[in-house]
Batch of 3 targets.
Target 1
Amino acid sequence: STMSLSEAEVQSARGAWEKIYGDAEDNGTAVLVRMFTEHPDTKSYFTHFKGMDSAEEMKQSDQIRGHGKKVFSAINDMVQHLDNSEAFLGIVTPLGKKHANQLKIDPKNFRIICDIILQLMEEKFGGDCKASFEKVTNEICTHLNNIYKEEGW
């Protein structure tokens, strides 16, 4: 297995994720809005978000809400398969290839988004919640970076 998480770590990571995934659309939106606000260059990938400058405006956007939900759904699929590296890679690989080849997203943005998710977890549910999910974000980012390398980035 390529996964470096113990069974206990998988369980506590799932518990932590469930808390934030309970409100996937709002929390997913909050993560994207924070990313676009704190790292405005990330907006350039989303042509329909370009003109939006205020966080309030972004929060109301159906497209941002939809994408926030999509990001959280993808992570949720990964979290469900942390104990099955084949299934996990089956989700991460096509996602990585699409972002590398079609969307041409700089892979550093995955780390940014993961760090914002961890921040939000800490703010809402405390440091333990964040700590138990940190290893998962490292797994996700490591695998995505590997896929990018394979794709010639």
Target 2
Amino acid sequence: MDEGNFQAYEGEIQALQEEIRQLTEEYEDIQQESTFYSDEEILKAIKSLEGETQGENNGCASLSDLKAELESLERDLSFLTAFTGFHFTSHSKKTLERTKTRTVQRHRLSGKCHSLSFQVEFQLLEMPDSEKVSSVVSDLSIVMESIEDSNVSKFVSSTEECGDLLAFFRSILAYAEWYEHRKCTFLHFK
């Protein structure tokens, strides 16, 4: 066999092995996401889908129930956004490592807190214990748009070093609320 053909086949084999690895990771991510739903929720969803296929009249009733449920969820989301001040625009998750003793995932969140835009990226290490799962945040990276205040920049830097995601969300909420008040006050005097 010619050496060039052999290398071409080797390259193709490696590319296929990499594609298989990526597809396996995607499948495992989908499997893990499906475990977030309880058996009761899955059975309820299956019964709902079966009801739609049994007849046009039943399907319309199920469709109207689904629309009502969707409207209710949208109202709940709107309430939570107004209540907390956070509006998340995107979220992505990628599993980097999965073993029986630990799972490492990279998360990326984008959103706004009042009028301040932010993007947070971090790794989440989950280690299941006998009764619960312990989680550790690492490699925290925070990007905020339009930060004029050097104290906020220092706070973001120290939060990234500590990896304290909860402190970031609590503090940015308080800062964003007062930022809005300051903007309104300065507009009043202009």
Target 3
Amino acid sequence: MSKISKFFKGGSAASKGRGGPSPQEALARLRETEEMLSKKQEYLETRIERELAVARQHGTKNKRAALQALKRKKRYEKQLNQIDGTLSTIEFQREALENSHTNTEVLKNMGYAAQAMKKVHENMDLNKIDDLMQDITEQQDVAQEISDAISSRATFGDEFDEDELMAELEELEQEELNKGMRDVRLPSVPSTSLPSRP
């Protein structure tokens, strides 16, 4: 068994008893590790700057000391590159864990909602719902018929032919007009002749 697999199978005693750490615990530890590595990055960056300054200071005067400073700078740069890679891996793992935790919570809540919906529907019978909907439709039709009957124009006295009534009305109007014409006095025609052209 490799050292890495032993490391991952070993785990802490607290984690073993509970079946592994919670997502919150794992996220907290990943964040702590990120902070520690970020501090180490800052430390290495300052050491690299110092070694570079030492190398410049000795320059051509003390080549051995300058070379030793440049070798230390290279080792620090190598460590810094490793930390950069490790930080990238940890960030990726933290984001994946956060997404997994979010997805788990979403699925859990969707499961609760599905159970609640099932509980609501367990007392409902589809046949009874169909019957109820038919009753509602019938009652709506009856209500519409009543509404139409109430709102339609009353047909009191509509049993007469409208054309006959219109003809009778025209006769009455004509009689009135004739009576009015009898009482009109027209002026008499003048007996004098009209002048010819001026």
